[in-house]
Backbone:
């Protein structure tokens, strides 16, 4: 299990770092504020939550194998809860969620979700193929 967590963590950190650099470069080219809209927090929080959800799923895989889908959905709901507690009040201060605010949260969220889904799917398929 520790090897899977390390491998997944390195994947999340690497891909999110790459996405963050692209995101900041795009903001720079568009002459927008680089570190506004809690962009650093969004990448960090989404990365930490993705790793934590993956860890919980691996830790519970034997005990709650038939409920892993629900555990994954709970993790996604947790991410939305964090969004509404940490980011939404900040983004709605001016009664408008701008494109930059939306992408500051959505890009790391979607990136983590894609990596989580692909990794967990691969892991579950591998588990299912073992007799």
Residues:
């Amino acid at each position: 299990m520790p090897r899977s967590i390390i491998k997944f963590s390195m994947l999340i950190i690497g891909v999110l770092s790459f996405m963050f650099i692209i995101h900041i470069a795009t903001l720079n080219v568009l002459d927008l504020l680089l570190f506004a809209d809690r962009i650093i927090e969004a990448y960090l929080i989404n990365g930490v939550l993705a790793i934590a959800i993956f860890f919980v799923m691996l830790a519970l895989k034997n005990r709650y194998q038939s409920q892993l889908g629900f555990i994954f959905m709970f993790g996604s709901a947790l991410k939305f809860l964090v969004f509404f507690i940490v980011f939404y009040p900040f983004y709605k201060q001016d009664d408008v969620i701008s494109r930059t605010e939306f992408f500051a949260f959505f890009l790391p969220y979607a990136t983590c979700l894609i990596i989580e889904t692909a990794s967990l799917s691969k892991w579950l398929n591998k588990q299912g193929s073992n007799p």
Q: What stands out?
A: The chain has a mean pLDDT of 90. The first helix runs from residue 2 to 29. The two ends are 19 Å apart (CA to CA).
